[in-house]
Structures are given as C-alpha cells and as structure tokens.
Amino acid sequence: MVDPRRHVPRTDVVLADPRLAAATERAGRAAVKSAVVATLQRVRDGALKPDDVVDAALAALPGGLRPVLNATGVVLHTNLGRAALSPAAREAVVAAAGHTDVELDLGTGRRAKRGRTALAALQQAVPAAGDVHVVNNGAAALVLAATALAGGGREIIVSRGEMVEIGDGFRLPDLLESTGARLREVGTTNRTALADYERAIGPSTGFVLKVHPSNFVVRGFTSAVPISALSGLGTPVVADIGSGLLEPDPLLPGEPDAATTLAEGADLVIASGDKLLGGPQAGLLLGSAPLINQLRRHPLARALRVDKLTLAALQATLTGPSTPTWDALRVSPAALRARTAQVLARLTGADISVELVASDAVVGGGGAPEVTLPSWSLSLPSEYAAPLRAAPTPVVGRVDRGRLLLDLRCVPSDADSVLTDMVIAVAAQLRSATGSALPTGPVD
Ligand SMILES: *Cc1c(COP(=O)(O)O)cnc(C)c1O
User: Which residues have C-beta atoms less than 6 Å from ligand 1?
Assistant: First the structure.
C-alpha cells in the first residue's frame, strides 16, 4: 500500500499555482490559503488525489456565484439565474458599482428621482404607460399592488383558473393573502365569465387581477374573460403578464405583452425584468400615472426598491442592442448546427465518442410552455454530466434518455473552445478512472 501522505504537496507550492494566484486577487490570501489547507488535509486523509488539489481548493473557496456555461437548451433557466445580461448591461453594472448619480442631478447638485434614466427608458419603450415604477422582482410588484390597492382586508377578484404556483412551492394566492388583502375567487378552473366578475364586485373590491398562466396551458372546454371586457367594470384591472415582453413578438405569439395589455384597458401591468425582457431581476410596474404614483408613495415601496446595479442593468438592457436571451431565442437552427459541428470535429479529433443530434430547446423561466425551438446538441454518455458540472468552468447540460445533451444555443459563441476543453478534460478524467476506453453506448 502506498501511503498517500507521502504525496501531499506543500502549501506554498500549491498556492503558487497560477489559477490559485488569480483567485487570491479576487478572494484574498486568507480565504485561498484556508481553502488550500483544508484541501490538503483531505489528501492526507486519502480522500483526494494530489493532482486534484487545485481544482478542489478552487471549488472550496467561500462565497462567490460561479459562472457556468448553460448548455441545457433552456434559455431562461431559473436555477442558472434566468436571463444572462447583455455586454452593455454588464458594463453598466460595473460602471455603477462605485459612487454614481443614481439620486443626484449633477447639473443642479440637488437630489433627483432615483433611477430616473432607467425609468424614462422603460416608459419610452412602452409609450402606452402613463408612468412606470420598478421594484425587486415580479412577486414584489404584486405585493406592492395588493398592499396599496387592496390591503386592510379589501378584496382582489381573481379567476379560479388563474390561481397559479410560480415555482419552488410559491403560490400567488398565498403571496397575495400575505399582504392582508382577501382573495375573492370567481368562476371555475376551466371557465370564468364576465358575469362571475360582475357579481363579485362590491364596496370592498380593491381590484380585479388577471394573471397570465405562464407555465401551463388549459385546453378543451375553457373560457376566460379578456382584459378589454374587464376594463369596463369600473374597478381597477391589474394584469400580471409574467414574462416582461414589452411589445408583441411573432416568435412567441401566445405571450402577452405590456403595450397590448395596456391598450386593452389594464390599469396596471406587472412583469419580471429577467424573463423575456432579458435584463436583471426586477419587477416592472407600468400603468396609469395616478396609480403608479400611489404605489410609489406607499411606505412598502421603500422596502422593495431596487439597487443602483439593477437600475443600471435595466437601462442598458432597454436602450442597448439585442440581449443574449433574444440572440438565443432567434439563432437559426442551421447556424447552430454549423457551430455544433465545429465543436464535434474537435472532440472527435480528440478521440471522444460524441454525436450531433437534433434536439428541442425551450424558453423556460415559466414562459411559453408550448413553444419548442428546434435545436442541435452534442450527445455524450451520461457519465459526463457530473464531472462537467464540477469542471473549472462548469458546463451544465441536460440528461435525456440516458444521454447527456449539450445544446450550444445559450452558450456564448466565444465560449465554444472553453466548453470543448472542459469536455476533453473530463474525457481524460473518465478514461483514467476506468483505465479503459470510455463507455460509448448507442443513442437510444
Ligand atoms: C414569473 C412570474 C411571477 C414572479 O415573478 P418573479 O420576478 O419571479 O418574482 C409572477 N407571475 C407570473 C405570471 C410569472 O410568470
């Protein structure tokens, strides 16, 4: 038996590794050193191979969200942070990270409206809105509207077909009731009529809520009441459209958008910033000027306000060029195939058994559940999935029928070579672990 302790590298030698030296710049020497010391102890305990010390120490560094390559084919993946920011938005975030004029008019030297340029950009993008406001996320926007317009036990009238769960166990009805508003459910799961709303309206009505069922579809014997009909009921209509599409887009014909919803007569539209808008996490409120003013002046608004980084990213997203979200949604299957074939050629050249297969990508983020985007993927044995997630640049793919699919649709094209390097490194790792050729396995 070889005593693994004889092969424990010295701490200073490990710390001199260029990747750990770079991490020291980011995380500080104390954090990196203690990660290395803890990792070397695992080698002494025989739990880690000496060759893996640097990777393990990097992975053990405290804090820090790690950038990953999203090869899942899910454009807005909630677990991967939904929308990736555009280069313009990233630059804006970095520029705003220090002191910035978020609440100061540099001309007069006086206090100015917080985030006024981002708000102006949002209003310009949706001229139908009398005014706009931005909070932390879509849920915060709902909470603010419910508290300000129906708090203190007033009623929110909502169809039973729109009592949705958004994900991770969060249910809109619970969220709304947590504000002290009462829900007045009308209609049934599949059918709700205008008369149902009419009967429910009374002196204690706060508003009528219309929720876009963004992550499921009800089909068959169904009917719902359009906003245009609800807007004639004489009570405010709040529409939660979910996705943050500002105007209609032919690629996603089933997705409601802010401009059309306002034109149909909604008094207030609520949407997320990090779904189809392709921006930072934020809750967008667009609507009539008096209503927006009422929300902005409510004491709760202060607790839900967005930080300067969000405002910077939002403005750059609204005024800048196309976002990674829309680049990924719009990329042509032919271009994607050609790109994937280039990666395939490098991998095959490295003696890796991999195939190019047709696959389906989706919008994700609880949006457009019925839309599939024809895509192409690299198909690898599923044994690659875990080590690729643990790679120095983690690559997250999707395991489908026993194969790991890597869809380059949401991978920045300048990261193809990094992705390729990661796959080659994992192949070598798997080869040395099995001491033989890789499991190749047929497709299906
Ligand atoms: C996503 C979504 C929400 C929640 O928005 P967050 O920004 O995630 O808080 C609320 N309503 C609908 C219809 C949604 O699709």
Answer: 137-139, 166, 211-212, 214, 240, 242, 272, 283, 366
